[in-house]
Design a protein that fits this description.
Isopropylmalate Dehydrogenase; alpha/beta; two-stranded antiparallel sheet; about 20% strand; binds 1,4-dihydronicotinamide adenine dinucleotide; binds magnesium ion; ten-stranded mixed β-sheet
Length: about 325
């Protein structure tokens, strides 16, 4: 039987890029079983919840979830953060890859940032006190070990050669000291993969001055959040950046962009970030073959420049670009 995939389109262009991504995915005859589920603002207006229990239940049951984008309204529960917590999606994977025809600071960049997604400064342990306020930066051995193991495992599975730990252990001696120690313990059992470490401030600079030195970066929550957006800036734009949220039993794959109300309904959203998110899903399933096929087809379309959405300087609609990618897949 085929793998079960939850489809959460969400709001605005989330729906449009999902339709495009499924068209591309379906042209490969992968025998997936899709289970559609609701989340986001439209869902709230219909059911009184941005992330109904039914959706969480479906996402827990399936092999992977594809998530479009949602409109978030202040005061409403965040659908994506709830899903990350409920499914314990502890690893956030953000590829930093320059693609042809896309404005990028350097050509040929290709590295991945793996961010610990469950603790650090985002543990929610924050309170006011008599002097002001304090946030606790929780670093556990368990979460550090599983993210470091994930990073080496990712490197092995995806034919990458080096894992770099990024931290600030010179100042955060205990928390990042622990993270760094566990990183090198993990490196010890993965000696086929090269390992090294940098301070986060130096990393922020090297990502601009010599990003070619990176292959896989593994880091704690806040540093990963900041560096991955810096990375997106390096390779040009929201319409192009995919991401994966990985847990022990599940994976959730989503473009980095939001629901883009300013262009929603016009059918002109760039589907690349969503399509590249399905590429990451296939990679996570171990289907590197089909992942590469889709990525190559997208690259061909970018290189030809005939069917590009307006954000890429073209005049095509979302579905025209998706169809162009499908036709490249058929030629392959
Ligand atoms: P946004 O990512 O939706 O849009 C920012 C800018 O980039 C806009 O000009 C938009 O037109 C453009 N853009 C984004 N994706 C594009 C694509 N695929 N093709 C062409 N252009 C694209 O961020 P914004 O405007 O700050 O937020 C809009 C809504 O989305 C808000 O409600 C926000 O909270 C939500 N949001 C949801 C996210 C999610 O579902 N994971 C992530 C980020 C924002
Ligand atoms: Mg961010």
């Amino acid at each position: 039987m085929g793998k079960k995939i939850a489809i959460i389109e969400g709001d605005g262009i989330g729906k449009e890029v999902m339709e495009a991504a499924l068209l591309v995915l379906d042209s490969l005859n992968l025998n997936f079983e899709y289970i559609h589920a609701e989340a986001g603002n439209e869902c709230y207006n219909k059911h009184g919840s941005t992330i109904p229990k039914k959706t969480i239940k479906i996402a827990k049951k399936v092999d992977s979830t594809l998530f479009g984008a949602v409109t978030t309204v202040e005061g409403q529960k965040s659908a994506i953060i709830t899903l990350r917590k409920e499914l314990d999606l502890y690893a956030n994977v953000r590829p930093i890859k320059s693609l042809p025809g896309i404005k990028s600071l350097y050509e040929g960049l290709d590295f991945v940032i793996i961010r610990e997604n469950s603790e650090g400064l985002y543990s929610g342990l924050e309170e006011y006190n008599s002097k002001g306020a304090v946030a606790i930066r929780l670093i556990t051995k368990k979460a550090s070990r599983r993210i470091c193991e994930f990073a080496f495992d990712y490197a092995l599975k995806n034919h990458r050669n080096k894992v770099t730990a990024v931290h600030k252990a010179n100042v955060l001696k205990k928390t990042d000291g622990l993270f760094k120690d566990i990183f090198y313990q993990t490196a010890q059992i993965n000696q086929d993969i090269e390992s090294n470490d940098y301070y986060v401030d130096a990393t922020a600079m090297f990502m601009i001055t010599k990003p070619q030195i990176f292959d896989v970066i593994v880091t704690t929550n806040l540093f990963g959040d900041i560096l991955s957006d810096e990375g997106a800036g390096l390779v040009g734009g929201l319409g192009m950046t995919p991401s994966a949220n990985i847990g022990i039993d599940n994976g959730l794959f989503e473009p980095v962009h939001g629901s883009a109300p300013n262009i929603a309904g016009k059918g002109i959203a760039n589907p690349a970030a969503m399509i590249l998110s399905t590429v990451m899903m296939l990679e996570n399933m171990g289907d590197l073959d089909n992942a590469l096929k889709i990525e190559q087809a997208l690259i061909k379309v970018l290189r030809e420049g005939k069917f590009l959405t307006p954000d890429l300087g073209g005049k095509s609609k979302t579905m025209e670009m998706a169809k162009a990618i499908c036709s490249k897949l058929k030629i392959n």
